[in-house]
Amino acid sequence: MRLEIACGERIPPGWTGMDISDEVKPHIHHDARIVPWPIEDGAVDESRCKHFFEHLDPADRIRFMNELYRVTK
């Protein structure tokens, strides 16, 4: 799986979009600040996150990175 985290309306072809907003029609409707994500361990081959990570507070950044580590192969 190629995961686009906080995808917004831009989900590139071949990518799985995850976003908190159901209005943007993501493949996975989920707030990336809340763990665990609804993704199996080691299911993600590649991930991207644009214009989201910098808005997290330090504790949320640690949880985010730990969760990204969990879901990445």
How are helices and strands ordered from N to C? EEEEH
Helix/strand/pairing class, anyone? alpha/beta
Strand line-up of the largest beta sheet: 3-2-1-4
Helix content: 10-25%
**What's the rounded overall pLDDT mean?**
97
Radius of gyration: 11 Å
What overall form do the CA principal axes indicate? globular
Strand content: 15-25%
Largest sheet: 4 strands, parallel
Unreliable sequence segments: none
Distance between the termini: 10 Å
Q: How many helical stretches?
A: 1
Question: How many individual β-strands?
Answer: 4
List the defining traits of the structure above.
4-stranded parallel sheet; 4 strands; alpha/beta; 1 helix
How would you describe the overall organization of this protein?
This protein is α/β, with parallel strands linked by helices and 73 residues long. Helices cover 19% and strands 19% of the residues. It contains one helix and four strands; from the N terminus they run ββββα. The protein has a four-stranded parallel beta sheet with strand order 3-2-1-4, with no helix packed on it. The longest helix has 14 residues. The mean pLDDT is 97.
